Amino acid sequence: MKLTKIAAIGTLALSVAGLSACNNMTPSDSTDAATQTPTSSQAMSDMNVVQVAQSNADFSLLVEAVQAAGIAEPLSNPNANFTIFAPTNEAFAQVLQETGMTKAQLFANKPLLTKILGYHVINGAAPVYAADVKPGNIAMLSKDTLMVTAKGQLQDENGRTANILKTDIAATNGVVHVIDKVLLPK
């Protein structure tokens, strides 16, 4: 009888320990550190290109678009060398007005959204900094051509020009340049 009580107490103790361990288990967050929103104290040079965009309120529509297209994770690749032409929120508002689309319509059309966003990305052997830019054509990630004009503007395949507002925002996996228009491929 004494042995049975000891066994029962031992089993109870193991059950309690097991249940306590279950309470400490939380579902793991599938979002890895590379795509998490940066902290305000994190230096831009310690962020990837997605985190750079997330850290600036003027890129909130760009960040929404990247998430809607499902490309935040690929753009967070630590081994990539991206050059991003990042349109501001005002640029997104302007293109929505220009095209007659709502944000919901654009973001729901994943193939179109992905093509437009890919038209803002160069994935090369090295990031392209302002000092490296020369007039001419550039092959974009979307497989479309973007032209750099002699005045240093970007001209899309529709003849629309974008000004570069700020250059050389360094990231761990590339560089970000701020532009005033959403570029549209044909």
Could you list some keywords that capture this structure?
four-stranded antiparallel β-sheet; 186 residues; 37% helix; single chain; 7 helices; FAS1 domain; disordered N terminus; alpha+beta; 8 strands
Provide a quick synopsis of the model.
With 186 residues, this protein is of the alpha+beta class. Helices cover 37% and strands 19% of the residues.
Structure, explained:
With 186 residues, the protein is α+β, with helices and mostly antiparallel strands. It has one domain: FAS1 domain, CATH 2.30.180.10. Helices cover 37% and strands 19% of the residues. It has 7 helices and 8 strands. The strands form 2 sheets. The protein has a 4-stranded mixed sheet. The protein has a 4-stranded antiparallel sheet with strand order 3-4-5-6, with no helix packed on it. This is Putative surface protein with fasciclin (FAS1) repeats. Keywords: Signal. It holds the Pfam family Fasciclin.
Which helices and strands appear, and what pairs or packs with what?
Layout: H1 2-23, H2 49-54, H3 60-69, H4 72-75, E1 82-87, H5 89-99, H6 103-108, H7 110-118, E2 121-123, E3 136-139, E4 145-148, E5 154-155, E6 161-162, E7 164-171, E8 174-179
Parallel strand pairs: 1-8
Antiparallel strand pairs: 1-2, 3-4, 4-5, 5-6, 7-8
Helix pairs in contact: 3-7
